Every structure is written in structure tokens, then in C-alpha cells.
Amino acid sequence: MVPWLSPDEPFPPVERALGASSGAPGLLAASADLLPSRLVDAYRHGIFPWYSDGQPVLWWSPDPRMILRPDDFKVSPSFKKTLKRVLRDPAWEVRVDDDFAAVMRACASAPRHGQRGTWITNDVIDAYSTLHRIGEAHSVETWFEGRRVGGLYGVSLGTMFFGESMFAAMTDASKIALAALVAHLRRSGVALIDCQQNTAHLASLGGHEIARKSFLAHVRATVSAPAIGWRFDKQVLADWTGHRSAPESAVPAV
């Protein structure tokens, strides 16, 4: 039985999450609250919330875990051409934290194959926006001709990044934001990005599964490290095109 957590009750050990033979592999616990303090504690223990509107907050720790190592990020020849075009055309921008809540709302309204509705409710947006205000959640946004056309958001603790969701209103717009994020994280010494669950799209970009035990060992070793910086723009995309770009200390804030 999945335990119900009271507001001050800690998470059970992740090894108690439901197994592969259950109808909900990885489900660990449920609660009524989505307090920012609970969210940070969850990520520090390799746990994340995922549920539908009208359900209690459901907390997950699947085994295996989908991850992306920045060094393994795959850039196809056609996408490399796209990145070169983005780099030379001033109509394209990559902005960081321009409007975090707007990115979350765009992710909430993005259509998902095989899914109806969204788990990114107003309460979820409020909780993650609080993390953003204290510097523990960030958005990376793709802009074209002054319009936000794609982006992503996630949680950043120490030298660990936990990806949450992406959206695109133009072809490759979310992928451009992801390429910029991955380049920045690689430059910042982040060795692993949490992708939570396996999808064909993430696998095509270099993501793969690792055992939960290995994932949690990495989380424990990185979440308490000094926080990385969040100053970068589209010039980091040059890492994937074979062109040199300015060191991040010389990249202007956006």
C-alpha cells in the first residue's frame, strides 16, 4: 500500500516504491501538500511529483531512471545546420529566466501524445515559482523575432539538474533550448541531467536508463555542491557546431 504523508512526515525509503510488476512502477507515496520545502526535499532524495488534476500529490522514484549525460548529447547533421542558423541570425535568441511562470504555463498547455490534460496546475506553477524565486528552478527559452517559441524548465541543486518539461511552438524550438542548457551544464561541470522517465525522444538525443541506486548515489554527491551560475545566451550553442564561443565569464547576462 502506498503511504499517505502528513505535512511533517518524511518520505519513506525509495526502495519501498512500487515495483515493475505493479500498475504504477516507481510510485512511492501520496500527500495533500506541495510545499516548496517538500519539493526540495524530494529532489534531494531522487523523488519527483507527478499526478493529474483532482488527484492527491503522487511522489515517484522509478527504477531504472532516465538520465542524459551532457557529453552524450546527440546533434544530428540537420540539427547542427539549424543551430548554425540560430547562431548567425539575430532574430533568434536564447534567454534564461525571462519569465519562468510563462514557460510553465506554456508547458502545461502543450499537447502530449497519449495524454489528456496536464499535471502542471496552478498549484504546481506556484510551488515551482517559489523555487525559482530562491534560485533553485530555472527556465531556458528560445525566442524568434521577439516571441517566445519554445523552452524548458527544471530544478537546479548544486551541480545536479532535474529536467521537468518542455514546449515548442516552432519546429526544434524546445530542442534549441535543450541544446543551450546542455552546453551550459557541461561547461559548468554538471555530469548528469535527470530526465525522470524513458521516452523515445530523449533516447534519440542521447538519454539512457541507469539503475536507481547509481542515480541516487550521484544525487547525494552533487546536490550539496556550490550552486552553478545561470548567465548564458545562445553563444553556448557553438559547442555543438564546431565553432569556438566566448567563455561563459565573458557572456553577457540575459
Question: Any overview of this molecule?
Answer:
This protein is α+β, with helices and mostly antiparallel strands and 254 residues long. It folds into two domains: 4-62, 2-Layer Sandwich (Alpha-Beta Plaits); 66-250, Leucyl/phenylalanyl-tRNA-protein transferase, C-terminal domain (Aminopeptidase, 3-Layer(aba) Sandwich), CATH 3.40.630.70. It is 29% helix and 22% strand. The protein has seven helices and eleven strands. The chain has helices at residues 36-44, 77-88, 100-109, 122-133, 173-187, 200-204, 212-222, and strands at 4-5, 27-31, 48-49, 57-60, 65-68, 92-96, 137-144, 147-157, 160-168, 193-196, 208-210. Strands 6-7-8-9-10-5-11 form a seven-stranded mixed beta sheet, sandwiched between helices. A four-stranded mixed beta sheet has the order 1-2-4-3, with helices on one face. α3 packs antiparallel against α4. Keywords: Acyltransferase, Cytoplasm, Transferase. It comes from Paraburkholderia tropica. Belongs to the L/F-transferase family.
CATH topology of the largest domain: Aminopeptidase
How is the biggest beta sheet arranged?
Answer: 7 strands, mixed
The CATH superfamily of the largest domain is Leucyl/phenylalanyl-tRNA-protein transferase, C-terminal domain
Q: Give the class from helix and strand content and strand pairing.
A: alpha+beta
CATH level 1 name of the largest domain: Alpha Beta
Counting DSSP H or I runs of 4 or more residues, the number of helices is 7
Which consecutive residue ranges, at least 5 long each, have pLDDT under 50? 246-254
